[in-house]
Amino acid sequence: MNTVTVPLLNDVTVPMMKLLALPVSAILSWSPSLMLVIVVLYARLDGKLLALDQQTGGLLWAASNSRYLDGYTMTMAPLYYNGLVIVGVSGGEYGARGSVTAYDARDGHLAWRFYTVPAPGQTGADTWPANDEWRTGGAPVWNTPSVDPKLGLLYVTTGNAYPWSTRAVCC
User: Fold this and answer.
1) Long-range contacts of residues 152-160, Cβ cutoff 8 Å, at least 24 apart
2) Model pTM greater than 0.90?
3) What's the CATH number of domain 3-155, 1.10.3720.10, 3.60.40.10, 2.40.10.480, 3.30.70.2750?
4) What are the 10-residue block averages of pLDDT along the chain, 171 residues in total?
5) Alpha-helix residue ranges (DSSP H) falling in the chain
């Protein structure tokens, strides 16, 4: 039987057929009792990221990625890569500032966040108007990113930038 080694929370070798049967937003992990656990990752519309035990449906951890009351939401399947769960935010049409965020897959704590619209002083900020439009600059990351594991690169696409300008637009 073909097997594949998956670099998850621990390196795990599993039969290929079992790996192919996993949902898109799922990872494998070893629990402390050395039982194989399938974790379902769920990015909710209200901005919450959940990790659920596939067998019981029990909540393993939850993280608040954004506030829907501020115009943010999540519409992507979370991406697992190298011990991280990676998600983006939607909501450019509501003035959300785009970002990509990674959480530790073991416990859901924030590992890093990258804003797709730079704030003053950040790389690329000089390409934006010298005001506070970066706060509602759009460029949401509403599609699941892609990873090139050989190069260790994360590829992210964004939606429309600059949807909520306060400047008057003339004909």
Assistant:
1) 154/81, 154/86, 154/100, 156/88, 156/100, 156/116, 158/98, 158/116, 159/90, 159/92, 159/98, 160/92
2) no
3) 2.40.10.480
4) 37 40 47 64 89 82 92 89 92 86 94 92 85 82 91 90 57 49
5) 16-20
